[in-house]
């Protein structure tokens, strides 16, 4: 997708309602169990094109597990998931015509650990899936990789291997790699939590730029200020449930539920 979509938070109410209905990802009543343990409990989340949703909550509350359902890295036990009009999960079952490779090309993901290939340079890491998954020529892939490394501020590191890059640089390479498949949406699972604050900052700046460019994102994060400033909505999860979802100021400054208040009093 090349067209720049204005982020929802920059629209007034009227403009906002005009884009209503352009739901990119619709998760309904998603549940996930590991053995007898239900860790995600009937969670709903609809994400509009260009919207940024931050998921916050205590460790072990099911944030990562829920997030991974969106690209079917985690198959839900029940619920319905529709991505860009395509049914991915219906009543907890994956329709046989669901194309998972296509789905994962549409939905990029970045993890806390960067998972770069250590024997490849930064630019080779970004090239790789463009060639193998999209069938781009080497030269087209390379041109796109350099464009993306420039976008994340790492043109100068193109020929450097991950071990010789800082954690913040490695995460930015991982973001460039995910963007190289031209995803419609990005899932980010605590992309800064393995980083020192000053290195986390440069990754957050890249994420903010992505949000401003109109990228649809679901971001699991402990960075409350970032969530407040960048997200259109914040969802608070606890014990596998979506306890509360709303505009950042409301959820962070005037939470409705006691469980949310309790969590925020410790971290914010
Ligand atoms: P969060 O991201 O909010 O910290 P997770 O989604 O990682 O929470 O985990 C939710 C719960 O599910 C935790 O109790 C965790 O131990 C459990 N869990 C996560 N992944 C697995 C797995 N593959 N097998 C068994 N239990 C798991
Ligand atoms: Mg997690």
TrEMBL record:
It is a peripheral membrane protein. PROSITE patterns: ABC_TRANSPORTER_1, ABC_TRANSPORTER_2. SMART domains: AAA (SM00382). GO terms for molecular function: ABC-type amino acid transporter activity; ATP binding; ATP hydrolysis activity. Keywords: Amino-acid transport, ATP-binding, Cell membrane, Membrane, Nucleotide-binding, Transport. One of its GO terms (cellular component) is plasma membrane. Residues 25-264 form the ABC transporter domain. Its main location: membrane. It is found in: Cell membrane. The keyword Membrane applies. Coiled coil: none annotated. It comes from the Bacteria. InterPro entries: AAA+_ATPase, ABC_ATPase_HisP-typ, ABC_transporter-like_ATP-bd, ABC_transporter-like_CS, MetN_ABC_transporter-like, P-loop_NTPase. SUPFAM superfamilies: P-loop containing nucleoside triphosphate hydrolases. Belongs to the ABC transporter superfamily. This is Amino acid ABC transporter ATP-binding protein. It comes from Sinorhizobium mexicanum. The lineage of its organism: Bacteria, Pseudomonadati, Pseudomonadota, Alphaproteobacteria, Hyphomicrobiales.
């Amino acid at each position: 997708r090349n067209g720049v979509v204005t982020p929802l938070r920059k629209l007034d109410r009227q403009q906002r309602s005009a884009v209503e209905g352009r739901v990119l990802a619709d998760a309904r009543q998603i549940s996930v169990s590991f053995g007898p343990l239900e860790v995600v409990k009937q969670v709903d989340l609809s994400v509009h094109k260009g919207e940024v949703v931050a998921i916050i909550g205590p460790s072990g509350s099911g944030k990562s597990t829920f997030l991974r359902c969106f690209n079917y890295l985690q198959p839900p036990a029940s619920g319905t998931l529709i991505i860009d009009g395509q049914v991915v999960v219906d009543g907890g079952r994956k329709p046989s015509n669901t194309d998972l490779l296509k789905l994962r090309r549409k939905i990029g993901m970045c993890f806390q650990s960067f998972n770069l290939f250590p024997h490849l340079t930064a630019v080779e890491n970004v090239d790789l899936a463009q060639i193998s998954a999209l069938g781009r020529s080497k030269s087209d892939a390379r041109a796109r990789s350099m464009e993306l490394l420039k976008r994340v501020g790492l043109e100068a590191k193109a020929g450097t291997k991950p071990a010789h890059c800082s954690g913040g640089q490695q995460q930015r390479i991982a973001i460039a790699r995910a963007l190289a498949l031209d995803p419609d949406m990005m899932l980010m699972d605590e992309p800064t939590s393995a980083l020192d604050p000053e290195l986390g900052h440069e990754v957050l700046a890249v994420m903010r730029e992505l949000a401003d460019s109109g990228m649809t994102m679901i971001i699991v994060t402990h960075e409350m200020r970032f969530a407040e400033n960048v997200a259109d909505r914040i969802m608070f999860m606890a014990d596998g449930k979506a306890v509360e979802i709303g505009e950042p100021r409301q959820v962070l400054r005037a939470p409705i539920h006691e469980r949310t208040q309790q969590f925020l009093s410790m971290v914010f």
